[in-house]
From TrEMBL:
Name recorded for this polypeptide: Ras-related protein RABA1f
Organism of this sequence: Lupinus angustifolius
Record-linked Pfam families: Ras (PF00071)
Molecular functions (GO terms): GTP binding; GTPase activity
SUPFAM superfamilies: P-loop containing nucleoside triphosphate hydrolases (SSF52540)
Domain of life: Eukaryota
Length: 217
């Protein structure tokens, strides 16, 4: 599990979104996971970017299409399209800026307002390498994650700490939701059409296959 795949040979395609305030390091988390790159001069994202990476989960190839957008309010008009079809999310704050932790409740509400109930959420405290500047305790973040029933990890895109683990855990949990829900209705998940996007949300049939792909309207 977690092995890198550069080609388009995959069994499942899952859309994952990155959310959180501007400057918390979302773009560097994305580039570290998909390209193993980090930029000290990275600028705030304008509009929407996305990148892909595939991993092995059990005997399947799971491909993530990860969307990254600006945290600034002036770009919030893209909200509905940005969240549409997402089955996983990384909600990111900066451990050195308490205000970014304070704002996660608003981000979480927005995420849940625009996605299905079964979305897998990883709460991420980024920039954990800046230990001398820490403003948010690990215990406070863990307590929030437990209260909101999300996963939690602290990461450092600079040091590549837990970046792979955070994304891989989200993708693995989504895969388990798909497998479990499909088995509940009596189908073999291995028989699902290869290379299609699976909807794991609660509002629609969790076993459905969206043949147009995760980016469609």
């Amino acid at each position: 599990m977690g092995a890198y795949r550069a080609d388009d040979d995959y069994d499942y395609l899952f859309k994952v979104v990155l959310i959180g305030d501007s400057g918390v390091g979302k773009s560097n988390l994305l580039s570290r996971f998909t390209k193993n790159e980090f930029s000290l001069e990275s600028k705030s994202t304008i509009g929407v970017e996305f990148a892909t990476r595939s991993i092995h989960v059990d005997d399947k190839i799971v491909k993530a299409q990860i969307w990254d957008t600006a945290g600034q309010e002036r770009y919030r008009a893209i909200t509905s399209a940005y969240y549409r079809g997402a089955v996983g999310a990384l909600l990111v704050y900066d451990v050195t800026r308490h205000v970014t932790f304070e704002n996660v409740e608003r981000w979480l509400k927005e995420l849940r307002d625009h996605t299905d109930a079964n979305i897998v959420i990883m709460f991420v405290g980024n920039k954990a390498d800046l230990r001398h500047l820490r403003a948010v305790s690990t215990d406070d973040a863990k307590a929030f994650a437990e209260r909101e029933n999300t996963f939690f990890m602290e990461t450092s895109a600079l040091e590549s700490l837990n970046v792979d683990n955070a994304f891989t855990e989200v993708l693995t949990q989504i895969y388990h939701v798909v497998s479990r829900k499909t088995l509940e209705i009596g189908d073999d998940p291995a028989a699902l059409p290869k290379g299609q996007t699976i909807n794991v949300g609660g509002r629609d049939d969790v076993s459905s296959v969206k043949k147009a792909g995760c980016c469609s309207s």
